[in-house]
Amino acid sequence: MVPRSGGEIPEALHPPLTNQLQLQSKAEAIAHHAAATHKEIAVRLGQVQRQQDHLAVQTSKHLQAHHERQTALIEQQQEMRKRMDEQRKNFERWLESLAEAVHTHLQARWGISLKVSSITDNHSHPSPATVTTGTNMPTPSIYLGD
Fold first, then answer.
1. pLDDT by residue (tens digit) across 32-86?
2. For residue 114, which of 122, 102, 124 has the smallest C-alpha distance?
């Protein structure tokens, strides 16, 4: 631009050059803005990635803990089943020995012959007791009235 005398506005010497400089400065401004936006997006993406990684680690820990609890509960359940089965077998043996003792006692006391059946044989009903004659059996009292 060439200054004029007398305080007039300077004249542009090369108007196409001025337009090119303006376009170049606009392009640089847009490039700076794009670079800043790109940098901001990269920072935000990094934050999102870190959050996802943190959530993945937390989820993995939670699932691992849940799996360990499930495994422990399954083992505990299996142990309880074993103990219950053992207790059931002990109870069955005890019932069989009790039935044997009752049978022996009834045989000795009353002369009653019972068929001893196993407790575990589908809980079948024993055959009715037979009374042998000539034994000392209690008799019901006789009502004589008033």
1. 999 999 999 999 999 999 999 999 999 999 999 999 999 999 999 999 999 999 9
2. 102
- State the total domains in the chain: 1
- Whether 40 is covered by a domain: the verdict is yes
Q: Would you say 22 and 30 are in contact if contact means Cβ atoms under 8 Å apart?
A: no
Report d(CA 60, CA 63) in Å as an integer. Answer: 5
The values of phi and psi at residue 111, to 5°, are: 75, 25
SS3 state at 130: strand
Non-local CB neighbours of 11 within 8 Å, separated by 6+ positions: 1, 2, 4
pLDDT tens-digit readout, 71-82: 999 999 999 999
What gap in Å lies between CA 104 and CA 131, rounded to an integer?
Answer: 15
Q: Has residue 2 been placed in a domain?
A: no
The reported pTM is: 0.43
